[in-house]
Design brief:
Elements (H helix, E strand, L loop, with lengths): L1 E4 L2 E12 L4 E2 L3 E2 L5 E10 L9 E9 L9 E11 L4 E8 L7 E7 L9 E6 L11 E3 L10 H12 L9 E5 L4 E5 L6 E6 L5 E15 L11 E8 L3 E10 L12 E5 L2
Parallel strand pairs: 10-11, 15-18
Antiparallel strand pairs: 1-2, 2-17, 3-16, 4-16, 5-15, 5-17, 6-7, 6-16, 8-13, 8-15, 9-10, 9-14, 12-13
Length: 266
Amino acid sequence: MRRLSDSVKVDIAIEPKGVTSSGTTSPYFKLDNYSRALFVWSVTPENASTSVTLTSTGTLYQAKDASAATSAAAITSGTAIVSAATKAVYATITPLTSVATATLSITAYDINGDAKTALAFYTSTAGTAVSTADRQFAIGDTASGTAAISTAATNLAALLNNTTYGVPGLYASASSTAVTVRAIEPGENVFTITSSNTTTLSVTIGQAMGMLEINASALTLSSDFTHVAINVVNDVSAITSAFILRAGRRAVAPVQRVGALTTVGE
């Protein structure tokens, strides 16, 4: 536990571990002296081939004590679902071949979870003129027509970082084999990213995050329910971790920054 102020505490709810459809539940945290709690969980797919299909579901539970031996119960409406493909924290794009064209679609979401304008980026194969204004990038060597993966990654990263035609709020970095896309200011943006042809451009989601907030009034206080926990279930195997922030009655409500957010008890 770490006390951020007299009215705010942060605790580790779930230590990093592999979680599948069997799920995992955090310890139960006492909430009777706090006005609200915010759970934030993170999922990192263990298998690159299933990363874009990952769906992670967080559900709030209440109990009468820390052991929750006989009293644990799900909280009505206390569920949030995160799809890795639609609310990514970072992702990797790998150019694979120049044989076929592909469209890379990216939509960024701002601090309030509102979608910005969807942007489409297009591959340009060998012998085709490249137009930055049309958001095209070269994926092949115009002389030989063979794929030059390092060059393609460099071209794509440069286009994504373009101040006029790139993606606002995100930045891209190129290696010899791939492009990694992240938010310029971590916690300010998440994004959707898809490829129309994964044989040409393969997309792997590196991390996704979800949030669940609960007001103390949402607990069944009349029946002595005073503790709260989060249960996380992933449809594919993913490294999962979570923390809880509990705020006192004088604290300002936490601000949503990433992922799916559900507020219970307003």
